[in-house]
Amino acid sequence: MSRVCFFTGRKSMSGWTKAEKGARRDGGVGNKIKGRTKRMVKPNLKKLRCVIDGEIRSVWVSTRAIKKGLVIKPSRVKVAASA
User: Fold this and answer.
1) Helix (H) or strand (E) holding 61
2) How many structural domains is the chain composed of?
3) Is beta strand 33-41 parallel, antiparallel or unpaired with respect to 45-52?
4) Whose CB has fewer CB within 10 Å in the chain, the N or C terminal residue?
């Protein structure tokens, strides 16, 4: 199972980081790109037990979905043991 938010669909995104040369006033040659490398921007995901379609499932959920109130957690009611 991939790390994608069940409710919002948020997932990892790739991008670039730039390494720049120094500014001319600081003795450099001006702001020029010296190099670039790939990086991953990952969402803040948590694995939670949620009530989905009446059954309890364990899914990846973004913290943004938790704050919005999209997640319904199962109740913590204890069932009395019959003896």
Assistant:
1) strand 55-62
2) 1
3) unpaired
4) C
Flag whether pLDDT at 12 surpasses 70: yes
Distance CA 20, CA 72 (A): 46
**Does some domain include residue 4?**
no
Separation CA 72–CA 36 (nearest Å): 42
Q: Report the helix count and the strand count for the chain, using DSSP H and E.
A: 1, 4
pTM of the model: 0.71
- Evaluate whether residue 45 is within a structural domain: yes
What is the sign, positive or negative, of the torsion defined by CA atoms of 5, 70, 54, 81? positive
Structure tokens at 34: 């010296």
Q: What is the DSSP string of 32-78?
A: -EEEEEEEEE---EEEEEEEETTEEEEEEEEHHHHHHT---PPP-PP
pLDDT at 83: 59
Continuous H helices in 14-80: 63-68
